[in-house]
Design a protein that fits this description.
Blueprint (H helix, E strand, L loop, with lengths): L5 E14 L4 E16 L4 E5 L6 H9 L6 E6 L2 E2 L8 H7 E4 L13 H11 L4 H14 L4 H4 L9 H13 L5 E5 L7 H18 L2 E5 L3 H7 L2 E6 L2 E7 H6 L4 H8 L40 H5 L5 E3 L2 E6 L15
Parallel strand pairs: 3-8, 3-9, 6-7, 7-8
Antiparallel strand pairs: 1-2, 1-4, 4-5, 9-10, 10-12, 11-12
Helix pairs in contact: 3-4, 3-6, 4-6
């Protein structure tokens, strides 16, 4: 296998909650806890999970918009922020991010062309060259420059603004895009158009994607591999067809069974998963999913299951004691 373009190694981020007269640390939110994964060049890695599982925090750690408490990000063999490694300025030339809120992501005082050209201009590209690149990217995302170049964000629809954000992310000619809920705020038909645009741009500009979404159908449509997160941990990771076809972790099975279906034979009468995720300030010991898992046993409380390859499927990893021989779980092979 070729070396990954992007690697996360034991990424950890805990947010301190302060209070009281002296503003001391009262508690710690374990948003992301020891997360590791690779993203290969040219692929789309989908990240799914319930709200609060750490998807967006992981994206911000990769971009160094949030400084990690532990772990490393390695881009194309160079460790980000390390002495002799990759600096943040160089990282952001090669990796860009598209956020969920298309309006808040744009400067309301800048016309569209300047919003796109601003990044290259700051990185030393001549003004005329940057504006020409902005016009070219407007065409690439399906917007005519003569109609949209001088408009302001409030004059655009949500779908048009998100296309502008995609064009702006491409302005520095990056190799990897992080798409954090990039279509979740859009109407279904508009979101489908933006998804098709992203697939077209990926081939046209030779891009790699990290695609974050709570919509399992969208992730299945665009991804090559999928990573499932729960309460700051990775619980399953593998090729999208394997994860969706033969999910191994109980949480993944519960998520997939909750997907809407037009097939009346797949109608469910009982919720596949009950209750809310535990408080990330004080997560359960051992397996974090055990408080909602119908198969939980004593070993799940005592030990945290490691993420390991599944027998017969070396590219498919899951973290569950039921899947590990000799773990002590009654259902283990």
């Amino acid at each position: 296998m070729p070396a990954p373009l992007l690697s996360a190694r034991s990424l950890t981020k805990h947010f301190a909650l302060r209070g009281g007269v002296l503003h001391r640390v009262q508690a710690v939110v374990q948003a992301v806890d020891d997360v590791s994964f690779d993203v290969r060049a040219g692929e789309t890695l989908g990240i799914v999970g319930e709200s609060g599982c750490g998807k967006s925090t992981t994206a911000r750690l990769l971009m160094r918009l949030v400084r990690p408490d532990g772990g490393d990000v390695v881009f194309d063999g160079a460790t980000v922020g390390a002495p002799g490694g990759l600096g943040l300025r160089d990282l952001r030339r090669q990796m860009q991010m598209v956020f969920q809120d298309s309006y808040a992501s744009l400067n309301p005082r800048l016309p569209v062309s300047m919003s796109i050209a601003y990044g290259p201009f700051v990185h030393g590209v001549p003004r005329k060259t940057a504006l020409d690149r902005a016009a070219s990217l407007l065409e690439a995302v399906g917007l005519r420059p003569e109609l949209f170049a001088n408009r302001y964000p409030h004059e655009l629809s949500g779908g048009q603004r998100q296309r502008i954000n995609i064009a702006r992310a491409l302005a520095l000619e990056p190799r990897l895009l992080i798409l954090d809920e990039a279509v979740s705020a859009l109407d279904r038909s508009i979101g489908a158009q933006v998804l098709n645009l992203l697939i077209d741009l990926k081939g046209r500009f030779n891009l790699t994607y990290v695609f974050i979404s709570h919509d399992l159908s969208v992730v299945q449509f665009v991804s090559d591999r999928v990573m499932v997160m729960y309460l700051g941990k990775v619980v399953e990771l593998g090729p999208v067809d394997e994860v969706y076809g033969t999910p191994r972790h109980p949480y993944t099975r519960a998520l997939l069974s909750a997907m809407p279906s037009m097939d009346p034979d797949r109608r469910i009468e009982q919720a596949p998963l009950a209750g809310d995720p535990p408080n990330p300030i004080n997560p359960p010991s051992g397996c974090r999913f055990r408080t909602r898992c119908e198969f939980a046993e004593a070993v799940c409380e005592r030990r945290e299951p490691p993420l390991r390859a599944m027998p017969g499927a070396p590219a498919h990893d899951a973290a569950c004691h039921m899947l590990a021989a000799g773990s002590g779980h009654s259902r283990a092979a």
